[in-house]
Amino acid sequence: xxxxxxxxxxxxxxxxxxxxxxxxxxxxxxxxxxxxxxxxxxxxxxxxxxxxxxxxxxxxxxxxxxxxxxxxxxxxxxxxxxxxxxxxxxxxxxxxxxxxxxxxxxxxxxxxxxxxxxxxxxxxxxxxxxxxxxxxxxxxxxxxxxxxxxxxxxxxxxxxxxxxxxxxxxxxxxxxxxxxxxxxxxxxxxxxxxxxxxxxxxxxxxxxxxxxxxxxxxxxxxxxxxxxxxxxxxxxxxxxxxxxxxxxxxxxxxxxxxxxxxxxxxxx
Length: 268
Prior knowledge:
CATH superfamily: NAD(P)-binding Rossmann-like Domain
Strand order of the largest sheet: 5-4-3-6-7-8-9
Number of strands: 9
Radius of gyration: 18 Å
């Protein structure tokens, strides 16, 4: 897709995606690349970045970086925008899972999850603002979670970080309106990505086994990519993905007492 730049010349729209080595980030990259967008990918997984870039028609600019590293954010965005000439979308997508009882969680894992899932997203927003502001109609796209609809027993820290991402999205939607930057959020439920292979804390079962054992559905990652495309081109603040996300949204609004009892039963 082409838009005119400040000089009236046509230029290819550009998206920068964190967590681009696999899962949701990879699917978003493929979706936007099919539309002719220029893609920048960031992740700590160099091999995964190369694999994602190889799937795209025109490849991608890749950056091995940790979203906790603010200097790395600046270096990557400086390089990508210098090459692309613009930044239409910053997809703040990087995140890690952490499940199991809070009372049994290791403090280093708690700190790491908060730093990546929440502080990393804040870093992207704070540093990305200046780059997005240069492109009229640019969009910050944050990946939250259905765990940000109602605090999920067994996912306390993960839920807390995703509630933070949701709050940040709502706040910046108002705060950045005057700058011409649109802010949107993705709220997926359980998505079939490599993250589900991680063990559930305090258990030998994977997150995938725990989810499917509870009778919950896994949505294909392509559904999130389509939601990302809708989010960037629509006016809804949040795009919900998966039956569980829609059910939680309904229950949190209309049946909070019942939802509270359900959470207690599932973890009791």
